[in-house]
Design the sequence.
């Protein structure tokens, strides 16, 4: 079926082509080269989504699904001759059950909208990330996003109860589960979680919600060495019941915060490690103060600051969320979201930094991450785009050599495909390909992502 017939089969405002295609559809947040698609398909309903996929199969038209395009692996950036399928008009909150603590939303609903809808009922949607205003329900599910509170609530996979998805041939897979426990047959939604849109398009998702804890305590701690960081994590995990975040900022990160961004230093002198930790509690029982005081008295941490009000808490988090501003000054940059066992993390960061400086003397880097989850972010630049792949080769080789993963949260997308074989077995990759072939033999949907 030629282009015109496909256009005629769909509602006028679903099929956007030519000059009406806006530049924003050309890329996601990654450094994958932008490509403006010839057509953007903007369904409002599952029926329209299904019709699009059926027509795409008939015409062998390649499609890439786009959510909020905040992805960092190039998965949502259109490739040559691909049309974009944007779920941006599917933004309804379909159901919220305050007692069962579930929310069902359309795929284009943003993380922030879900958080706000939950808050009306005194509930919390705990998946939180810097891109909350744009990242969508479908996008976080397709990438199995992590974020700032994984240590307490788990990754997106742990929050998804049900899903409706449209398979590459247009079939609708409705798994409208709201139950925490349901062992009836295969849990098919897992095929769509974390598979980066390769096996289908997510149309609706049912997520778990959690009771809102009225007391949120946030602190910054200073540590002289990584042993102290690990010791504090151990103590905090044991004594702080509602520990929800444990973020670590290395001294190279803090130097950019105070130097580049001009934010005030947190402590009278810089320390090798700054830890941002947060606890959510039903009542203020002084847990946080007691834990940090004993850590200071025992010589584990050198200093600690506890936010005294919501304004100060937000200010504390602004040090962590400022990464977006740092990165825009570090362009062109190489960003890593590797996973490393915490027992090996300090040796790894020292080894990698030394090797990077030896090979790229002009390198500038920041090190930070969700260390409570073993997830290390490293962002670097030499100012030379030509160094990108050699830097990736160096870091990925060292990460996989110690049983780490090349991506703990952002996914493989287009950009990390060459290294998938270094952290998955040949048999695993073969099985991934078999699943893809079974569901999408003509490779219509998100071709070339992941596998
Ligand atoms: C400032 C910033 C901070 C971030 N922080 C974190 C973080 O802490 N943790 C983390 O994990 N990630 C983080 N990210 C990465 C990004 O926000 C996540 O990957 C997010 O899940 C992407 O959602 P999205 O809606 O923007 O998806 P997109 O970027 O649009 O798409 C991402 C992938 O999912 C697929 N996809 C999108 N929607 C659907 C759908 N409905 N059905 C099927 N497939 C779909 C796309 O094809 C693509 O492969 C951050 C990004 C930014 C820019």
Sequence:
């Amino acid at each position: 079926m030629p282009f015109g017939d496909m256009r005629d089969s769909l509602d006028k405002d679903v099929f956007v082509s030519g000059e009406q295609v806006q530049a924003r559809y050309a890329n996601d947040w990654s450094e994958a080269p932008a490509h403006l698609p010839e057509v953007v398909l903007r369904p409002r309903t599952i029926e329209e989504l299904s019709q699009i996929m059926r027509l795409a199969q008939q015409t062998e038209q390649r499609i890439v699904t786009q959510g909020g395009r905040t992805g960092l692996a190039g998965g949502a950036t259109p490739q040559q001759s691909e049309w974009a399928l944007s779920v941006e008009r599917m933004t309804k909150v379909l159901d919220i059950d305050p007692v069962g603590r579930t929310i069902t939303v359309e795929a284009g609903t943003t993380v922030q909208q879900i958080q706000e809808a939950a808050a009306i009922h005194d509930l919390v949607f705990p998946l939180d990330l810097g891109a909350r205003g744009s990242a969508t329900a479908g996008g976080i599910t397709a990438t199995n996003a992590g974020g700032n509170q994984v240590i307490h609530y788990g990754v997106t996979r742990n929050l998804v109860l049900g899903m409706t998805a449209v398979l590459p041939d247009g079939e609708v897979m409705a798994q409208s589960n709201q139950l925490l426990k349901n062992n009836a047959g295969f849990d098919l939604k897992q095929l769509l979680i974390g598979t980066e849109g390769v096996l289908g398009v997510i149309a609706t998702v049912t997520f778990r919600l959690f009771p809102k804890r009225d007391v949120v305590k946030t602190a910054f701690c200073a540590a002289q060495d990584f042993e102290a960081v690990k010791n504090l994590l151990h103590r905090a995990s044991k004594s702080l019941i509602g520990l929800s975040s444990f973020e670590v900022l290395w001294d190279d990160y803090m130097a950019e915060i105070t130097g580049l961004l001009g934010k005030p230093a947190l402590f009278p002198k810089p320390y090798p490690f700054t830890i941002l930790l947060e606890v959510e509690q039903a009542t203020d029982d002084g847990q946080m103060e007691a834990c940090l005081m004993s850590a200071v008295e025992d010589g584990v941490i050198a200093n600690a600051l506890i936010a005294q009000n919501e304004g100060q808490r937000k200010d504390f988090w602004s040090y962590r969320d400022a990464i977006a501003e740092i990165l825009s000054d570090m362009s062109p940059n190489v960003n890593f979201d590797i996973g490393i066992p915490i027992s090996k993390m300090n040796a790894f960061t020292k080894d990698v930094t030394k090797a990077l400086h030896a090979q790229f003397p002009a390198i500038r880097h920041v090190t930070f991450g969700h260390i409570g989850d073993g997830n290390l972010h490293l962002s670097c630049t030499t100012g030379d785009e030509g160094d990108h792949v050699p830097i990736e080769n160096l870091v990925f080789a060292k990460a996989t050599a110690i049983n780490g993963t090349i991506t703990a949260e952002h996914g493989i997308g287009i950009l990390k495909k060459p290294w998938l074989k270094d952290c998955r077995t040949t048999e695993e990759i073969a099985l991934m390909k078999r699943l893809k072939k079974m569901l999408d033999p003509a490779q219509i949907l998100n071709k070339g992502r992941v596998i």
